[in-house]
Amino acid sequence: MTQSNVEKVIDMPPAPAKVIACHVIELDKGDGMMKTWSYPASERVQMDICFRKIAKIKKSISAAGAIAKYYKYCKTWHYINISPPLLESGMKIAEKEFLRIDRVAVVIETEDFNPVRYEEFGNLFIRVFVAEADPTILLRQFLSLVVTGKCHWENTTIKASKFDSILPFQDFRVRSLITTFGIETIVLLTAVLRKQRVVVYNRKVDGLIRDVLSILALGSRSDNQWDNVYPWVGDNDDELAQFTDMNFYIVGCANATIENRPGFHDIFVNIPAAEISVASHAKENMMMSKPHKEVALFMVQLSENEEISEYDLIQEIRKKAQELSIESHQLKKRASDAEEA
Amino acid sequence: MEEVDSILIYTLKQVGCDLGSKLSELTSQQLMQCVLACLRLIRPDDLEIPTYDSKMLMSLRFKVAQQTAKLLAELGYTEEIECQSLLYPTESDARKVLIFVVEKLPRESDVASQIETLHRIARETTSKEVKVNDTENAFGKGSGIEVDGIRLPNAVDINKLPKETLKFYASHLAELTFAKEREKWPANRPKAKTSKPYVDDDFGNPDIPEVIGSTNDVSAKLKPEMPQLVIDGKSILKPPIAQKPNFVKSVDEVPHPDKEQRDADVIAEKLMMLQEISEQKAIQLHQRMAELNFLNLKVASMQGDVEKQRKHIIDKGKRVERENKTSQLINDKENGIEKVKNAIDSQVEKLINYSFQWEQHRKPLIDQIRCKREDTLIEQSGVGKTRDKIKSLKSVLKEMGQEAQSKEDVYFKLLIEYEKMSKELSRSSYTQRITEIIGNIKKQKKEINKILEDTKQIQKDINTLSGRLDRTFAVADELIYKDAEKDKDKSVVQSYKLLVAIHSDFSKIIKTLEEAANLRRQTRDLEDKLELESGKNVEHKLKRLRADLVQMQNENMILEARLRDPTIKRSH
């Protein structure tokens, strides 16, 4: 099994950059934050959600360095880059411009999933914005990214195509999932295979994203299942409204209160408590048989082998799970044949 | 007067009344009918308006006339009016009544309802007359006018035409109608009865008679009037065209009673048929209307579709144009790419230009927002402070309230206690006594203080006196001693000795005095104690004890004696 093969199957294949919008949000030294610039436009709900995410990031991190986080809302990936306005000597702009500003956040909206790529662009945008204190120059950079797919500012040049061959996400932790849940991990796999509504709770956002994407990697068989993954969602009505018409999704949430919305999930995964609960209305859909148990045992055994890499682990599990699905298909066929007979 | 008359007559004819050209020729029957017709128009909703017929019983006629007179009075007729003024009118009376009624007629604004009412009235009168078939009642041209009445829209148009023209039209109308319907002649007078169901319909569904009016049925219905018009209206409404032979024949046939019977049958049959047909037509009409509505809706939706399609087409056209352009560009290869690049570049430049412009607005606005925000923050902090203050005040208030409550509780308790206590002892007397006692104590304290001061003073005096004594003694002692040493006189020595003796004696006396005072004090203390002890009644108690002891001793003796001598016990 070659690495490239794994890439294709496991992960969302790297897609060319499709940038939609860019926003600048300034965080005051107090509690306030304000969207000061947008191109081409921003919506109220979208910005509200964005503000909440930034507030959450701000709460959890006190370090002075740059932070990059991302989430998905209505099929659009939002990459948030937050950094303090690092004023270098020799900058043209007087410091008073950023006197009251604690941090600057740049939010890039895109259609493609590629956190690494947009972290780099986001950081560049912040630097441009802080150094020039002129959104027009930022706009020029943004348009250059849209039109030519690259940015050039002072001595730095970043090409969007640079990331086209790199996996957008590699930080899976299936092994940790299996050690946490043991043979119950099969429930997660089955839920994804059977397209149930899975909601994952974890306190820390980074861990949450890793867990959600790992669960997806366990069970997804086609690229388009990535359409249904929302690694970081807040427990708010306006944000959850996007799911009303969906009957399959994997949603990650850092608010424990999400469990109090019973109609929202079929399977609820509480990672800190190592609990998987299947909603009563989904129990019928989650019936499992002997082959499932075999797969579960196989997963546990495999994860105990420290020599196998995370990728190989995922790959092996997928292979085994494929057998499962084939078997179930056969069973279904037999059942339907029997009915017809 | 003639002009007034002609106007009156014209109006009344329009309303559908039949009357002659002169008011002086007006009969009571005509007058009554005119008045009633007008009343019906004035009060279309009034069902109490009676009908009048010359064939009615005389008493009934009187009654109707009475009612009519009453109605007129109700309407505001100021002149005196009674049944006789209607039934046996003088010319001036009739004129007055008619003028009044005509004035009260609804105005042009009510034309629609008027038309309908006219239709109805026209038919009613027509049918009545046909039924009656009495030339004596229906003055000739009257029926002709009624034909006009059916065709009211025309009549309304000719409102301002002179009477003669109107007559001319009327006669021509009759002629024309006749010419058209000649073939369908056979039905005669009784056919007019067919109008009755229409009259009924008229109330229920105003649409029907109009539609029917346009069909042959109504034309056929209209026809019976024609002969009458011709027969009766010979004097005035003479059709200018010579009467058709058929028509004349039929006219001739009318009076024959044999034929009448036959015709009646035929007409009854026809009537039934016509009724059925009219009903069918009505149903058909309804169906058609529904269909029409449906079709209208369909048309509307179709129009919407058309609009949509048009938009679609426009969109498509735009797309095609765009695609055309792109294809052109593609075909142009290098040039095309150049063009596209240029276009994009120009767009980017444009955008950046806009952005630059926007920036000039944006920055002050953002600063403004910041300032406002800070202001609100400050305000909020002020508000917060006041809120905290309010909170603290509230808590204080709560505490105070609790305190007040506890105090109130205590107060109530005390109140209850107080109520329990006997109320005979007045509080004031107690307090008075207490204050008295306190005053006494204060007085005593003052006296004690005085005494203390006195004693202190005396002590001081004593001290100073004893000091002086000591000093004087020392001086005297020294002086006498020196003298005694110098002189060695016996008297001096004697005096010295005496002095010493006096001194020592006096000091002894003082000592004894002090001791005596001490003793006296001790005795006083002891006396106090004694008094205290005696206050305890020790003596009395001792006496009682002694008596008890004696008794006990006696008892003991008796017991001892019993022990020694059991007989005593037995005897006892």
From TrEMBL, chain A:
Keywords: Coiled coil, Guanine-nucleotide releasing factor
Residue stretches in coiled coil: 314-341
InterPro entries: FAM45
One Pfam family hit: SPA
Protein name: Uncharacterized protein
UniProtKB/TrEMBL annotation, chain B:
Disordered, as annotated region: 187-206
Source domain of life: Eukaryota
Ranges of residues in domain CCDC22 N-terminal: 1-106
Protein keywords: Coiled coil
Coiled coil: 509-562
InterPro entries, per database record: CCDC22, CCDC22_CC, CCDC22_N
All copies of domain CCDC22 coiled-coil, residue ranges: 259-536
Family per record: Belongs to the CCDC22 family.
Matching PANTHER family: COILED-COIL DOMAIN-CONTAINING PROTEIN 22 (PTHR15668:SF4), JM1 PROTEIN (PTHR15668)
Protein name: Coiled-coil domain-containing protein 22 homolog
